[in-house]
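User: Is it possible to get a 3D structure for a protein together with its bound compound? The compound here is flavin-adenine dinucleotide. I've pasted both below.
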Amino acid sequence: MSDDRGTLPGITVTVLPERVGSPVDHCVTSFDHVRLPRTALIQGEHGQLRPDGSLTSSVDSARKRFLHAIGRVTVGKLCMSASTLGGCRAALAIAVRYAHTRTISGPVAGRRVPLAAHRSHHARLLERVATAYAMTFLHREVTDHWITHTPTDRPAAERLVALAKGWITWQAREIVTESRERCGARALFPVNGLAEYPANADGAITAEGDNLAIWCKAAADMIFGHTLAPEPLPATGRESLTDPAFLRRGITAAERHWHAGARSDLRSGEADDALGRWNNASASALNLAEAYIIGQAAEAFATAITRTTAAGTRAALTDLYVLFLLDQVDSRSGLLLAEGALTRDHVRALPRTRHLLITRLAPHLPALTDAFSVPQEHLSSLPMLTAP
Ligand SMILES: Cc1cc2nc3c(=O)[nH]c(=O)nc-3n(C[C@H](O)[C@H](O)[C@H](O)COP(=O)(O)OP(=O)(O)OC[C@H]3O[C@@H](n4cnc5c(N)ncnc54)[C@H](O)[C@@H]3O)c2cc1C
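Assistant: Yes, that's possible. Here is the predicted structure of the complex:
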């Protein structure tokens, strides 16, 4: 495209304006009547240009060829997810450290208390820490799955990565925003390490395939390409809201509900109106996709706990796992009540159970974020954590 005198005739490179988030020198490269030899096309089995100009391909449709050609962005999706995950773990580590160093006036005159003493403060951080653990375990499982997939299960492996990327990067944006807020005005100064994370998460949400667009594709594939979850046992009222298996069944019940709904919504449209049929089904299908990937995150969390040998760590992680599940069940309690996966007493008991769990977990908050191993050099370089 260029030689030592600059770009070649017909080629223009235009630098794009500044964007928020980590600076990258994005540009647009345009070609105007530039003839390239046939061999300049990057070719593979999915598309080869013959000397006579005709195209041969091992892939039979233009859509499949396009999807094959962009298939390599799957690794990029894993990288985008990993980068926002690292960002949100660092943000939580900073916010938790700040919650224990920043003191405010307390109920007793003259005695100050750390922010972390307040339930309104540490509960929000703990809930995000629980989600960050679930995201981390999910990312590890999905990466392992991607590394070990076979050619026949490639479409399913790509779908799993797309779903994980959407969920992890959306959650990460929410977590870094909460972390920034919990540190007040000081966190708005980039020097304190939090202000730029949301913009970076925004980049990851869009790059390597916009989250909503890739979820739409995954969700559409799942309507008939994914096995309908078994009908859950109806709740009797005797189940405990701290039983992870019971809460996990709630997520499966939601998945099944939206899956069955998406199937019937899709059938309700005119046979020759593909977009109309998809428009009928997309809301249910996207809810199916979300419930499914949250279920996968729950599975990954449960597996990680089985590998934990120290009893104290295992107990704290189990509480954290239950908190994660409870949050998911709570946000779907209306649906789960209607589906018979929760009783009215369960729904009434949700806030109290959450309160008990938070009380048990609050003393572990610093240990839970210390385990993220954010380098001490980074934390000590942030004025907010070192200067009074
Ligand atoms: C930080 C960053 C780095 C990037 N790096 C590169 C790079 O190195 N190389 C490169 O080539 N590109 C790069 N990109 C571009 C990136 O791949 C695209 O921005 C991304 O795929 C989204 O496409 P778009 O911007 O055209 O948005 P659009 O596709 O126009 O999306 C706009 C909106 O339309 C919706 N939408 C789009 N399609 C559908 C659909 N089928 N169904 C429903 N809704 C839909 C989306 O949800 C979104 O709300 C980068 C982008 C970012 C943010």
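The mean pLDDT is 95. The two ends are 54 Å apart (CA to CA).
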